[in-house]
Amino acid sequence: TNDCTITAPNVQFGSAPLPSAFGTVSQSITLLCTKGITYTVGLDMGSYASGARRQMASGVNRLQYNIFKQDQSVWGPLAGARVSSLGVADGLTPQVIPYTATIYADQPAVPQGSYSDSVKVDVQF
After folding, report:
1. CA atoms of 16 and 100, how far apart (whole Å)
2. How far apart are CA 44 and CA 31, in angstroms?
3. Secondary structure of residue 88 in the 3-state scheme
4. Per-residue pLDDT tens for 15-42?
């Protein structure tokens, strides 16, 4: 059977007084997959998405953000928004997929709070 071990750290934006004051977070997801397979990796739009923007929630309040691939396009669940494996997996070498996460600056200020979302990683063989 085909499988992958996925390591995906939480994205921590920290605190800021306004959406425009948050910095971009740069991280990576690591996959170690079964020898001999190719795959694509997608991210769902999270629990509170609105259109093409992901949103974190604190009660009824929302803070818009997104996760971007290296080409600066949104990393999503559909074919064109997925990341492809770098060739055929050898079962020994992890593939590191860098990404950035950004809170959109073009949104109104939101009340102070602890904002969170849950995004699922989807690997298709």
Report:
1. 18
2. 17
3. coil
4. 999 999 999 999 999 999 999 999 999 9
CB contact set of 73 (below 8 Å; sequence gap of 6+): 81
CB atoms within 10 A of CB 51: 8
| C-alpha–C-alpha distance, residues 42 and 25, integer Å | 19
Give the DSSP H or E segment for 25.
strand 25-33
Q: What is the pLDDT of residues 67-113, one digit of tens each?
A: 999 999 999 999 999 999 999 999 999 999 999 999 999 999 999 99
* C-alpha–C-alpha distance, residues 72 and 86, integer Å: 18
**Angstrom distances, CA of residue 54 to CA of 39, 70, 76, 91, 104:** 24, 18, 10, 33, 10
Q: By the 8 A CB rule, do 56 and 16 touch? A: no
Kindly report the number of other CB atoms within 10 A of residue 43's CB atom.
23
Q: Which domains does the chain have, with CATH numbers?
A: 4-11+18-124 (2.60.40.1090)
Can you give the pTM of this predicted structure? 0.94
- Residues near 76 by Cβ (< 8 Å), separated by ≥ 6? 42, 43, 44, 45, 82
